[in-house]
Write a structure and sequence with these properties.
about 220 residues; mainly alpha; Serine Threonine Protein Phosphatase 5, Tetratricopeptide repeat; 13 helices; about 80% helix; about 0% strand; TPR_rpt
Length: about 220
Amino acid sequence: MEHTMEQVQQLIAERKFEQAAKALDLAISEHPEDPAGYTNFGNLLVTMGESPRSFAFFEKALSIDPLYASASFGYGNALFELDRYQEALDRFNEAQKSGLDGGDLFYMIGRSALELGHSGQALAAFQRAVELNDQDLEARFQYALQLARLGDLDTAEQQFHLVIEGDATHADAYYNLGVIAAFQDHNHQAKQYFDRALALNPKHILAANALRTLSEKKD
């Protein structure tokens, strides 16, 4: 069963939805008391953009095992996709209480907390996500953003540089480094960062506006 679930998750990742659905149908019929099949079917529906249909599968998994953390996490993702952030956060907290402790969980706790305006909780969650998976550049970028918003510009700057080390094409990281440089009146350096952001993404409106503002300062 476990090997089958790994194969199913691979099919979902490859967006081979029909094959995944058939494999999950078979798994559920052969192992109706295993919450993994229902959980993965729920995850499949979320990936397909059919989050409302996924609820029944996550609820079935949790009715079999109320402490099945993967089902709580999947349920939270489904709720998040529907902008039901407080409910999503509640499910993510359930997943954590049930033993889930991965970077993806804390990243989603951070995203939910951010949407709810809980900036301190979001910062702590993104920091934990980075600690658990230092290769997660999106978590690191969100961590850096929160640091900057809360006024810790030195640490934010370090984190944005680490994002760029991992992905030299991350236009938003360059833009935010430009914002920090401009705030510190390092205008020449700020211009270089904004120019780089625009070179990577010619439609980066914020970087274009920032360059215009810098130009007006000179004039």
